[in-house]
Amino acid sequence: MSATILIIEDDALMRKSLASFCKKNAFAALLAENGRDGMSLFNQHSVDVVLLDMRLPDATGTELLAQIHKLDAEVAVIMMTAFPDLKSAVETIKNGAFDYVTKPFEVAELLQTIEKALQIRSLKSEVLRLKRTLPRQDFPNILGASAAIEQVRAMISKVGMAADTPVLIMGESGTGKELAANAIHSASERNNKPMVAINCSALPDHLLESELFGYEKGAFTGAAQRKLGLFELANDGTLFLDEISEMQLNMQPKLLRVLEGHPFKRLGGTKDIQVNVRIVAASNKRMDEMAKTGHFRHDLYYRLSTFVIELPPLRHRADDIQLFAEHFVAKSAKHMRKAVASISADALKVLQQYHWPGNVRELRNIIERAVILCDESVLTSEHLPGQLLPASRPPAASAADTDWSLADMEKRHILWVLEQVGGNKSAATRRLGIARSTFDEKLKKYGAS
Ligand SMILES: Nc1ncnc2c1ncn2[C@@H]1O[C@H](COP(=O)(O)OP(=O)(O)OP(=O)(O)O)[C@@H](O)[C@H]1O
Ligand SMILES: [Mg+2]
């Protein structure tokens, strides 16, 4: 495909000779004798290079250069200048012109400059094309070589590029949902804008609303001054709604409206506020089931789940346990300045046979504790807590491990750990490596609180 060159030059003779130069070199030429015609041709055609005279009857080259780059920042503009204009031509280079040629110019010199510009343009578009097809990053902080986690990384990199699509991350506690949310933000074009996070379970309903939407001075008792909401703070960036499943039903339509592109008002405010925010939500509950049973609004679930990433539980990627264990040993040893350098085969076997209800977080905590206990260079099964050892395992659940409902096995395990620590809930939480709120919730669910 031949390149298209837009020539903006008021001197008729010069235009003519440039047109024949283009013809000779198999370039398509568009001719304009002033800035206004030049801009209109630029708007109507796909132009590769602009040859722009410094002095035109209706505009200066510098002004036109700025207008052109506003429309297409990548197009190469070559300034044509008479000798006395040289200084301003140099100035335009600083403003983004590709190069300049002085009149009268050598045809060979002009050709060379144009070819260089075309070459750079095609390299730039090649880079762009590659950027789009290749995964943008390989997320070095998301560890794991199992196929399941490879797929998670691929999904993150793909959705990172779809900069507006909401993402729902689902997975059990400790599987890396927050890590994934951060990776999505950094893989997206929004990565130079803020990422703001809020845990929807941590706040009562009315506080969540004022956190998200902000309020005006005097909106309610105690609203001493205007406060911007997280939607405004995250504008052009990402808003991470953690534990979205805990958002109250009456709050959900308000979120949906913003997700659908509607403006909102600060509490007590009258002004419509429009934001551009990508929502990444996370849940350790199966949101599809919640939507089915009416525990979460179906329309909001539908919108949030445009793109779902499911993080696999650790027990389903036993292949990764060694890699995680070694990583956490090295990290903890470095942090604590200890000489622990490796992990024995028997300890590894214990780790691989355990079912990890608290997933990667639990593994990290257990290794950290083991490194503290270990005074040798090799960490062995002696340094692992009793609950991991097969002999002191809770009785095996009769029902199969049903991943998500987890019910039977998880219940037995949690109650068993609680019993082991003499009913001390804080100790049990630490041992399980899960959040206290998660623990309390599970106890409640199993009727044991
Ligand atoms: N693939 C992974 N690679 C490295 N570290 C991981 C990975 N997955 C999880 N982790 C680590 O495990 C810990 C828990 O991860 P994170 O907080 O993202 O889990 P979560 O799914 O948000 O858990 P919760 O539901 O309890 O909030 C963090 O320290 C995190 O860095
Ligand atoms: Mg989390």
Characterise the protein shown here.
The protein has 3 domains: 129 residues, Rossmann fold (3-Layer(aba) Sandwich), CATH 3.40.50.2300; 164 residues, 3-Layer(aba) Sandwich (Rossmann fold); 132 residues, Helicase, Ruva Protein, domain 3, CATH 1.10.8. Helix content is 45%, strand content 13%. The radius of gyration is 31 Å and the shape is elongated. The structure holds adenosine-5'-triphosphate and magnesium ion. The site of magnesium ion has 3 residues, from α7.
Question: What's the short version?
Answer:
With 449 residues, this protein is α/β, with parallel strands linked by helices. The protein has three domains: 4-132, Rossmann fold (3-Layer(aba) Sandwich), CATH 3.40.50; 147-310, Rossmann fold; 314-445, Helicase, Ruva Protein, domain 3 (Orthogonal Bundle), CATH 1.10.8.60. 45% of the residues lie in helices and 13% in strands.
Report the strand count: 14
Q: Summarize the main sheet.
A: 5 strands, parallel
CATH topology of the largest domain: Rossmann fold
**Strands of the largest sheet, in order across it?**
2-1-3-4-5
Bound molecules: adenosine-5'-triphosphate, magnesium ion
Query: What is the radius of gyration computed over CA atoms, rounded to a whole number of angstroms?
Result: 31 Å
Uncertain segments: 395-405
Shape: elongated
User: What number of structural domains do the residues give?
Assistant: 3
CATH architecture of the largest domain: 3-Layer(aba) Sandwich
Whole-number average pLDDT? 88
Which structural category fits the helices and strands?
alpha/beta
Q: In what range is the share of β-strand residues?
A: 5-15%
- Helix fraction? 40-55%
